[in-house]
Structures are given as C-alpha cells and as structure tokens.
Design brief:
The complex is a heterodimer.
Chain A lengths: L10 H5 L12 H33 L2 H8 L1 H31 L7 E8 L2 E7 L5 E6 L1 E5 L4 E7 L4 E4 L6 E4 L5 E5 L5 E7 L11 E7 L1 H12 L7 H12 L29 E2 L4 E2 L2 H9 L1 H4 L13 H13 L2
Parallel strand pairs in A: 1-5, 4-10
Antiparallel strand pairs in A: 1-2, 2-3, 5-8, 6-7, 6-9, 9-10, 11-12
Helix pairs in contact in A: 2-4, 6-9, 7-9
Chain B lengths: L1 H11 L16 H11 L29 E2 L3 E2 L2 H9 L1 H4 L12 H11 L4
Antiparallel strand pairs in B: 1-2
Helix pairs in contact in B: 2-5, 3-5
The chains are: A alpha+beta, B mainly alpha.
The site of copper (II) ion (CU) has 7 residues of chain A, from loops.
Chain lengths: 325, 118
C-alpha cells in the first residue's frame, strides 16, 4: 500500500531501526492477515458511523426517531444480537486463519529455529529430522515460494518475532516452542523486528529475512556448507587477534576454536546485510565501530567495548570477519 | 569617513577563511547526508543532525567545518576531504578510519555535507 507513506519504509530506513512496513504483504500468510486487518478497520469504521448516527438522533433527531431509539428493542438488536453475530463470525474467521499460520512442520517445509536473546536473534537451520544443520544469527535465508516453518523459542524473557511482510507476529516465550509459518512470493530483503518490549535495547532488536530464487538458494546454502578459506595477510593477523582478545568465549566461528554461545554466531558475519541485529549497515567502518564501542551504538547490550585495542588491531579483526561469508 | 573606511577594512580582516575553502561545485548536500546515513558513518562519529546512531569510537564531527586539519594530519580542503572520506588510509596512514564504500561523486556529496557542520 504505497499510498500509506507512514507504513511504507525502505530497507534502508528499516536498517536504522524504524519498524518495517505493515499492511504491505509479500506472501500468502501475510496477505490473509492484511485482509483480516482491513476487515477489522472497515468494521470499526462502520460501528463508529452507526454510533455517531445514533448520537445525532439522540441530540438532534425528530421526536419520532428519538422514541424509536429509546426502546429496549434497539438494545436487544444493536446492543446484543448484532455484536454476538458479528464477533462470533470474526472469532471463527480469525481462529481458522491463525491455525493455517501455526500448523506444525510438514515434511516439505523448510525448518528454521529462531531463539530470542537480549537483544539479538539466534538462528538454526534444521534438517528434516529437526537436527541443527547450520547455525547463524540475525539473518534468515529462505527460498521463494516455499513455506518456511519457524520454531520460536526464547532464552531469557519474552520477545516477539515479526516480519510484517511475510507472516503474523507471535511471542517467543521462555520454556515454550511456538510455531509460525511464513512465505515470500518474490526475492528480496524483508525486515523483521522484535515486537514485545524486552528491555532497554528492545527497539534495536531487528533482523532481516532474505528470500532467494530456488536455484540461488541452493547455491547459497551449498557455498556456506563448504569450509571457509584460510585467512591470509591482514585477515590472518585478525584471526589471531580474535583468538587472543577472547572473542571466542562468546562467539562461535565454524571450523575454528571459537565456540562461545553467549553472542551471535559469526561464522557467516561477513555476508550479513546488517550488524548489531539489524541496526547498522555492514561494512568495514561499521564493523570497526561496533567492535570498538558497541555500547555507544546499542546501550546496555552484552558485548564489552574493545576501545583499548589499537585501531590497527580493530581493522585486522574486521578484515578477518569480512572473510567469514 | 576615513575612520569608517579604516574600520571596514579592519573588520574585513576578521572574516572567516575565504568562502572558497568549502566550495564543492556540483555536489549535493542532501544526497551527502543520505549517503552518510546509508553507509553508517555515525557508527563511529557523533554528527549533529543525525539522531541515531552516535558512535564514539571516532572523533565528534560537531563544528567539523571549522577545523583546520582533517584527522590532525592533512589540510581541511574540499579535494582533500572528498579523497579522505573515500579512502582515509591512503591519505593518513595508520588511521582507524577505513576506506568507505563511496564512489568519487558520492564522496564529494559527503564532503559537501560535512562542510555544513559549522
Ligand atoms: Cu523486544
């Protein structure tokens, strides 16, 4: 709905933390929710009009109209019968809609598990049997035209997973596994956002869903499954510094000694569109800025600042992380 | 009359650096600002007019236009600045600021924007 400027934001704007566009569906699940939303808006508008009309009759209507409005018949019809019929119909419609959004994984579905963390997203691609096939963070890659079942968990407090253009929104509750299905009809980048207040940096807890053409998706996943090339030159120094500075205590990088789980998986951080959970573009400069002083960018987040590292070292680490694609 | 002229001449001496210093013909300040936002310069710099982020690893750019030097090492001139924002290490070896993903025209827009930070 491009004529609704306040709802429509470009990815660039979404990058700077602004909520992604709503009522602008890009797949079947989001479409049905958008339809429901418009039905609700229309009904709310109709009820408002009805109430205003009744108010006008009560204040300024003729004697005859006013007496009609005053009887108990109006109360029975407009006050009880109408709401019961309309709300029941709406309840059935709404429940059947959310059921299609929440069916458990089908054999043909792509499965992804996303865990809410303060204030980022742990991502695990699952195989058919539900085992973890690949770990990642803050970005989810999906093929176009396929249903993706997202299993949602939380490791601390309640978060909410919301990619407005691809599906509904559902809470991530500690100790529970909620399921949400999503699908994209066209390749592109779709912004997501935590939609349940979860502490200071809640507004800075975003992510990206990247939808690929099926062939492109297969190629992309195959490339990721291959071991990363050995870093050389400056990147090799960066790899050493990464290890010496203790980054690996919190971050995992596949195929290296770094196996920490307290922070986002960095095995593929070089190919992410964003840094800091959807909040910054990803380039050499923002990478250096994040590692050197993440607290100025996302106050209270759980990564310490490394401003004591000399600029040359920050640059080398950034060069190393860029190679992890 | 003579005193008046002398006064004007004297005051003229107090003028800020010549207008030409910050001239960037053909560059677009608005586009520069958008580029600054898109490339995330504010991940390391406080830049007045950009509310978020306000990174603190690099120098604060409030009043940048009044600075005599860039990074304390090269004169703050339009051509220098446009080259610096694009590839800082080429001008100032050892700087933490990396080359940024900007082409030459974009770098001029960014420089023009930075000269509005008075
Ligand atoms: Cu939140």
């Amino acid at each position: 709905m491009t004529w609704l400027p306040i709802f429509t934001r470009s990815t660039e704007q979404a990058l700077s933390g602004w909520p992604p566009p709503v009522l602008d569906p890009a797949g079947p699940f989001a479409s049905s929710i958008t339809t429901l939303s418009w039905i609700l808006f229309a009904m709310a508008g109709a009820v408002l009009a009805l109430v205003l009309a009744a108010l006008w009759v009560a204040l300024a209507g003729s004697q005859r109209l006013r007496s009609r409005l005053g009887g108990t018949r109006v109360v029975w019809l407009a006050g009880i019968a109408l709401p019961v019929v309309v709300l029941t119909a709406l309840l059935i419609y709404g429940l059947s809609l959310t059921r299609t959004l929440r069916t458990p994984p089908q054999p043909s579905d792509i499965r992804v598990r996303v865990t809410g963390e303060m204030w980022w997203w742990r991502v695990a691609y699952l195989d058919r049997a539900g085992g973890v096939a690949m770990m990642d963070a803050n970005e989810i890659h999906i093929p176009v035209g396929r249903t993706v079942t997202v299993e949602l968990e939380s490791s601390d407090i309640i978060h909410s997973f919301w990619v407005p253009r691809l599906s509904g929104k559902i809470d991530m509750v500690p100790g529970r596994r909620n399921v949400l299905r999503m699908q994209a009809d066209a390749p592109g980048v779709y912004a997501g956002q935590c939609a349940e207040y979860c502490g200071g940096a809640h507004a800075l807890m975003g992510f990206m869903v990247v939808a690929h053409d099926p062939d492109d998706y297969a190629r992309f996943m195959a490339a990721r499954a291959r071991p990363a090339p050995q870093p050389g030159g400056q990147a090799a120094r960066g790899a050493q510094l990464f290890q010496d500075s203790g980054c690996g205590a919190c971050h995992r990088i596949a195929g290296t000694e770094a196996n920490g789980l307290a922070g986002p998986d960095l095995s593929h951080v070089g190919s992410r569109r964003t840094l800091g959970a959807g909040i910054l573009p990803n380039n050499r400069g923002t990478m250096i800025g994040w590692i050197g002083d993440p607290q100025s960018l996302k106050p209270g987040n759980r990564m310490p600042a490394y401003s004591t590292l000399p600029g040359q070292d920050l640059t080398a680490i950034a060069a190393y992380l860029e190679t992890r694609r | 009359m003579r005193i008046g002229i002398t006064l004007i001449l004297l005051l003229g001496g107090c003028k800020p650096p010549p207008e030409g210093r910050a001239a960037m013909p053909g560059a677009d300040v608005q586009r520069g600002r958008a580029l600054v936002q898109r490339t995330g310069c504010a991940a390391c710099h406080v830049i007045p007019g950009i509310r978020w982020p306000q990174g603190r690893l690099g120098p604060d750019l409030t009043h940048f236009a009044r600075q005599g030097m860039i990074a304390g090492r090269v004169p703050n001139r339009p051509d220098m600045l446009a080259a610096f924002v694009r590839n800082a290490p080429a001008l100032v070896s050892g700087t933490t600021m990396p080359a940024m993903p900007l082409n030459e025209g974009e770098a001029r827009d960014v420089a023009a924007y930075l000269y509005t930070l008075d």
